[in-house]
Amino acid sequence: MFILFKKDKSGEISTSDELTIDGIGSFLEKKGHTLLIKGYAGAGKTTLALQLLKRLGGEKGVYISSRVSPKKLQQQIPWVGDSPKSEMVDVRVGLAASVLEEIVRAVSEKAPVVVLDTWDGLAKEMDEKERLKAEKTLIALADGSETRVIFVSEEPGKTTMDYLVDGIIELVRSEEYGRVFREVEVQKLRGTLIDQHKYLYTLYKGQFKHFHPYREPEHSKLSPVTPKKDTEKGYSFGSDDLDRAFKGIEKGATVTIEYTPKVPYSALRTLFLPLVVNFLSLGRGVVHLPLPGASPHALLKLVGACVKDLKLYRLAVPGSSKDFSAPLFGFSGEQVKEAHKNVSEKLEEVKRLNINTS
Q1: Direct distance between the N- and C-terminal alpha carbons of the chain, in angstroms, rounded to an integer
Q2: Spatial distance between the Cα atoms of 309 and 300, rounded to a whole number of angstroms
Q3: Where is the AAA+ ATPase domain (predicted)?
Q4: Which pLDDT does position 253 carry in this prediction?
Q5: Which residues are CB-neighbours of 84 under 8 A, at least 6 positions away?
Q6: d(Cα 190, Cα 187) in Å, to the nearest integer?
Q7: Which of 15, 39, 119, 238 has a beta carbon 3.0–4.6 Å from 171's, enabling a disulfide?
Q8: Positions of the chain with pLDDT under 50
Q9: What is the pLDDT of residue 252?
């Protein structure tokens, strides 16, 4: 299974930092707001919290840890040691009262951001009434102050804190086809509009980066391309990324693209269109059978923008009975045997037109 991402000018996959998650930037601009980052262990909660601390707090932020020492934290997330030094407070052997004291101090000193990682580790040591009282006190300290307080929690289920904080972000880790998927969900940002509430993200190189939501490709600037040579294994996909993944296509091989109903046709085209364009640009022939409902004319327009007109005669696309002008040809799905014969004849015709059949 593949997920398609846009690349920047350097060739890297285009991602965005944590503050461009829809609504987060404007939400955290407001002083006194409280944010809960929750999720299971290993989801990247601490990484996200530290990046927010770095962006919003700089050297004036405060990081309060109840689970890991500052030294070990720098070993786990190396870039922390190279960043502006926020104050790090170790309360692993402390009580909830000591945490409250540290937050009171940070608020009184007008620290721009305080990260408490993790609150539930301390809260579990209190009974229900004590916990609720402590949580209300923490929220009250932030409310009306100049300090944003970020809580990190490893309790993915609903807790009393969910109803008290101003914002909630949950990090979810799942697996599909043996691959790990990470998804950040913006559950609430009080007083802030959320247009996009879910994003895929990565923790590559110890950095939290989320991916842009899919947008329809911009085709207005398409132009003829330089064809890619065959790989050692066989034909090129016309895509560096796919060639790196599969080493090309073996001659005589069949490649199947599986997709779910929610995948837009424009996304599928980004997989097979480079292959069509590359074959034509190398002087080879192509018979393309569009998916049901796809417009042959739309395909011809896209291919025509990338391939010089003289090479388009090697492209055969089935069209409607009203328009059999080249490169469209008649095709009927009513009789399977007749359809197979029609396509086979067209394949042989295209093969004869190939310049490079090796």
Answers
A1: 30
A2: 11
A3: 31-175
A4: 86
A5: 54, 58, 59
A6: 10
A7: 39
A8: 1-5, 10-11, 321, 324, 333, 336, 357-358
A9: 85
**What pLDDT, on the 0 to 100 scale, is given for residue 149?**
93
Domains defined for the chain, CATH in brackets: 15-211 (3.40.50.300), 240-353 (no CATH)
What pTM value is reported for the model? 0.72
The CB-side HSE value for 270 (13 A sphere, CA atoms) comes to 18
Identity of the residue numbered 255: V
Q: Catalogue the E-assigned strands of 190-236.
A: 198-202, 209-211
Tokens matching residue 131: 């916990």
Token look-up 């601490």 returns: 46
pLDDT of residue 236: 94
Six token digits for residue 294: 């796809």
Closest CA to 117 of 76, 147, 153: 153
Give the integer Cα–Cα distance in Å for 90 and 69.
6
Cis geometry, peptide bond prior to residue 118 (ω within 30 degrees of 0): yes
Of 107, 79, 308, the residue nearest 207 (C-alpha): 79
Q: Which two tokens stand for residue 96?
A: 């909830």
Contacting residues for 59 by C-beta, under 8 A, at least 6 apart? 84, 85, 86
Instruction: State the virtual CA torsion across 72, 73, 77, 79 in degrees, nearest 10.
Output: -110
Measured between alpha carbons, how far is 45 from 39 in angstroms, rounded to an integer?
7
**Main-chain dihedrals φ then ψ at residue 199, nearest 5 degrees:** -140, 145
Cβ pair 284, 354 in contact under 8 A: yes
Give the model's pLDDT for residue 5. Answer: 47
| Burial (Cβ within 10 Å: 0-12, 13-18, ≥19) of residue 236 | buried
**Nearest-CA neighbor of 112 among 60, 73, 150?**
60
Using CB atoms within 10 A of its CB, is residue 82 exposed (0-12), middle (13-18) or buried (19+)?
exposed
So what's the pLDDT on residue 16?
A: 66
Amino acid sitting at position 57: G
